[in-house]
Specification:
heterodimer; A: alpha/beta; 6-stranded parallel β-sheet; 6-stranded mixed β-sheet; globular; B: mainly alpha; two-stranded antiparallel ribbon; 14 helices; 2 strands; 69% helix; 2% strand
Chain lengths: 334, 354
């Protein structure tokens, strides 16, 4: 054991020494700090009582999309003097229990996603009964009103898919591949179905294992090799777009890669023409508006949308808009 | 379990009957190898897709299949060694992600040459392996529970630290930093043979198979591994350093996780903190398809590599065959089950003829 310990300390010392000596003069945190010259610290813009809002989503661990939603909600919470609580669970039953917990805590407002509406019904009803206003975001536009929520903020997945189909038509595409990175996700199926609805060419679905990027890459690569006539690949999440680009290169295919959602890489690749277009549903807006609308309701009894969902997308982003958005993707708000 | 069991002591004076001196034919030797069944399974799967998927037997397609297999195989080989040693590692999948996150974030936060991050990541990842091994040998619970704990801790730490340090759930790109291109050459480059591009992970995979096979068959440590997996008490009684062997095996898995993690980082620039969950099962599956016994003491590195190849061929072959994707998982299950049953049947026959 003593000898092992010596080895470990030598290794650690070596690593530390190397990190002091081997600095990179390009990129890294230093470059980022330089970019962040001066950003104002958030301070409450209103002096309404400090209400507590809870947001409960169906996000899995480490999802980039929901990170941006959260970021928007937090920003609005700071401005509106709100104590903001966030929790999430990909399992519908667990998510419903989290809503129950928020109701038990007697929060002043609840924001919830209805990815699996039936499972959430009872929990939302319980919040209504306790007199807590509920706003639904992202998914569940059809059920939102029936469940008694004030407003729904989000993108209709089918409409978003249809927008992709239209854009593919405009680009004269014939055969598209729709990459689903989560088998059994209703929203994903709706998106691909939407593409199928408006696209004049043919659409094929491909399921990949979203938790393993090498698997995503080799599966898309295999499909492109198997069918050379595919001329466009549509990924349903920003992180998968870049992987699809790599797969395209492996397969020696010329298919255009398009994607749902944005991140820094997607913005950069849209700018340099590696990607065709992205469909943005503005997740930042979903979080921000949800908190802000709850605040407006508490403060002024305002309701937006007139019983209809308030749509945050789809917004088609191409090379032209990408440059302007790149900076916002880097700070994690687009 | 019986692969390395010593031959029974011969009765004195009957030199001619000494079975240690009986020459076994090379064919017999081959039949006795634990990977034989899996090789037959692999050939069957290959022929199947060669017939049913037009584009499967093209050099470019095979390169894709080999890439998919290699990313599994790099982990399946050390996982197989660990299983031969009688233990499990459920943290292997997320450890890959941890390893990638460590290199990426360390290099980024210190604005250091990315090789610094890569080396620190090696030390830390091996440290996780040591942690698993020491926890196992110093305490009573089975490896299943201990590494389950590590799995959960790593999953949480991957997310927690990434969010804490980067502010988002994925790392920042380090593609513009010094040392990136040379590290990419080592971990994520491609090489061309006859006009077809192959990923370097295939070479890492082969190298690991060669090293692991050499350790298992030609070194004392190899005997220790079989002995520890075959019967821990007996091994301890004859003086095998059981604890050291087990810690070493966990470090082997950690080393594989480090290579896979660096590949992940340098081929995708950015690492998602939630990745890797569930892959540990795929590694174990590959090892089992390759003939490793879940109970320990039996198996081979070549077998695990062939198991990974079968998994890679089936999962990509289904795509090449363009079957209805809704049934993908079902087909995967059926094919794996058939390959494993064939494997099992061949091994049984081989044992009978011995």
């Amino acid at each position: 054991m003593a000898r092992t310990r010596t080895w470990v300390s030598i290794a650690l010392a070596g690593a530390l020494g190397a990190s002091l000596a081997g600095c990179s003069s390009t990129g890294g945190k230093r470059a980022e700090d330089a970019r962040k010259a001066a950003s104002a610290q958030g301070r409450a813009a209103v002096d309404t009582p400090r209400w507590t809002f809870a947001m409960v989503t169906h996000s899995g661990d480490g999802d980039t999309f929901w990170d941006i939603v959260q970021s928007g909600a937090k920003q609005a919470a700071v401005k509106d003097n709100i104590n903001f609580l966030y929790s999430h669970n990909a399992e519908a039953q667990q998510q419903a229990q989290l809503v129950d917990a928020a109701v038990d805590k007697r929060v002043d407002g609840i924001i919830v996603t209805l990815a699996k509406p039936d499972a959430m019904k009872a929990a939302v009803a319980r919040a209504e009964k306790a007199g807590i206003p509920v706003i639904t975001v992202n998914s569940g536009s059809e059920q939102s009103k029936a469940f008694g929520a004030l407003t729904h903020i989000g993108q209709d997945e089918t409409i978003a898919g249809e927008a992709v189909g239209d854009e593919l038509n405009k680009r004269g595409r014939k055969k598209a591949l729709c990459i689903l990175h989560e088998q059994g996700n209703v929203g994903h199926e709706q998106r691909c179905a939407g593409v199928k609805k408006t696209f004049h060419g043919t659409v094929q679905n491909l399921y990949v294992q979203g938790t393993s990027m090498p698997d995503v890459q080799s599966s898309i690569g295999a499909k492109l090799q198997a069918d050379k006539s595919i001329d466009s690949v549509v990924t349903l999440g920003a992180p998968y777009a870049d992987t699809a680009v790599k797969a395209r290169k492996d397969a020696g295919s010329t298919a255009e890669v398009d994607t749902f959602d944005l991140n820094a890489k997607v913005a950069a690749e849209l700018k340099d023409g590696t990607l065709g277009f992205a469909v943005d549903q503005q997740p930042y807006l979903q979080g921000y508006e949800a908190v802000d609308l709850l605040w407006l309701y508490k403060y002024n009894a305002d309701v937006l949308g007139g019983g209809k969902p308030v749509l945050t997308g789809p917004q088609i982003i191409t090379k032209d808009q990408a440059a302007a958005l790149e900076e916002y993707t880097k700070r994690g708000t687009r | 379990m019986t692969a390395t069991a010593p031959a029974p002591a011969p009765s004195p004076g009957t030199k001619a009957d000494d079975e240690r001196l009986v020459k076994t034919s090379p064919l017999r030797k081959l039949m006795g190898r634990p990977e034989l069944g899996s090789v037959v399974g692999a050939v069957a799967v290959f022929l199947f897709f060669a017939i049913f998927a037009d584009s499967f037997v093209r050099a470019a397609s095979l390169s894709t299949v080999l890439y998919a297999s290699s990313t599994i195989g790099i982990m399946a080989v050390p996982v197989a060694l660990l299983m031969i040693g009688g233990e499990f590692d459920l943290s292997a999948g997320v450890m890959v992600t941890s390893s990638a996150l460590i290199s990426s974030m360390l290099s980024y936060q210190l604005t250091a040459n990315v090789w610094v991050g890569v080396l620190v990541s090696l030390v830390v990842t091996l440290g996780i392996g040591v942690f698993n091994g020491v926890m196992l040998t110093r305490t009573d619970p089975p490896s299943f529970i201990i590494t389950l704990g590590t799995f959960l801790m790593l999953t949480g730490m991957n997310l927690g630290f990434t969010k804490l340090i980067s502010g988002t759930v994925s790392t920042k790109s380090i593609a513009d930093m010094q040392g990136f291109s040379s590290a990419k050459d080592v971990f994520a480059s491609t090489f061309t043979i006859g006009g077809v591009d192959f990923k370097i992970t295939i070479l890492w995979w082969l190298a690991l198979v060669v090293v692991a096979t050499w350790i298992l068959l030609r070194t004392r440590v190899g005997n220790w591994i079989y002995a520890v997996g075959g019967g821990e008490m007996a091994a301890r009684a004859v003086g095998v350093p059981v604890n050291k062997t087990k810690i070493g095996l966990y470090m082997g898995v950690a080393f594989g996780a480090w290579i896979s993690g660096q590949h992940l980082l340098f081929s995708f620039d950015v690492v998602q903190s939630g990745e890797g969950v569930g892959n540990e099962l795929i590694y174990i599956i590959a090892a089992v398809i390759g003939g490793c016994l879940i109970t320990g003491g039996y198996g081979s590195a070549v077998g695990a590599a062939v198991g990974a190849l079968i998994f890679g061929m089936v999962s990509k072959g289904i795509v090449f065959a363009e079957w209805n994707p809704d049934w993908f998982k079902f087909f995967l299950g059926v094919m794996l089950l058939l390959a494993t049953l064939l494997n099992h049947w061949v091994r049984k026959r081989a044992e009978v003829t011995k």
